[in-house]
């Protein structure tokens, strides 16, 4: 209840679910909305530096408004924060998710007629039909091969993460333009239909079971340091968004342990199997 990151309380207005649990000037049931920008920062205060990001199509509950910003709670992971009013629109029933690293939303069913916007892996769209090689949405046309039905999730978060190799590292990032370690894990889980919290300390506390020291690693195991997380590709290699290469990269597990310890970037915590 004390972690502001998932507390649906703006400092003045709280969700009705918190009535009797906290003191607030007013309680609300909130109102549904979705993100209509390719990506937007989710900030602890209006206009401040981001905690995390929300991707196009993310569903949120609007709780409070201050100036030209709205306090929201993400439906996917419960993360709360402020976003600009301009990035919010009416909710729709999403049917598909962008499964390619990135794609474009086109004005017409043609790659030569101009695009409306770029979309990151993880963007959620309402598909209403097909026209040639394109999926039809209310906002435009997307190459069908870049989408996956939400009711047919992928099986392996590591395979998802590997498609993002080379993506620039960005603190608090959640998309193709930039992503951090916990964002990579969260996005990999999301395309597999599995919810994961947004930050590595939450993931360490909430995902899976801790393996005993020396236990054999499997693909998909999560390796944790204080403030960092990686996905095991196999017993010897891992994939992670990291500040060393400033990208999503593969690295030997033992080499990473040695490097991170030598750099004094935080102690190794162990392995969890989600």
TrEMBL record:
Keywords assigned: Hydrolase, Protease, Thiol protease
Coiled-coil spans in chain: none
Domain of life of the organism encoding this protein: Bacteria
All copies of domain NlpC/P60, residue ranges: 151-274
InterPro entries per the UniProt record, alphabetical: NLP_P60_dom, Papain-like_cys_pep_sf, PG_Endopeptidase_C40, SH3_16
Alphabetical list of Pfam families matching this protein: NLPC_P60 (PF00877), SH3_16 (PF18348)
GO molecular function annotations of the record: cysteine-type peptidase activity
GO process terms (BP): proteolysis
Family, as annotated: Belongs to the peptidase C40 family.
Protein name: NLP/P60 family protein
Native organism: Thioclava atlantica
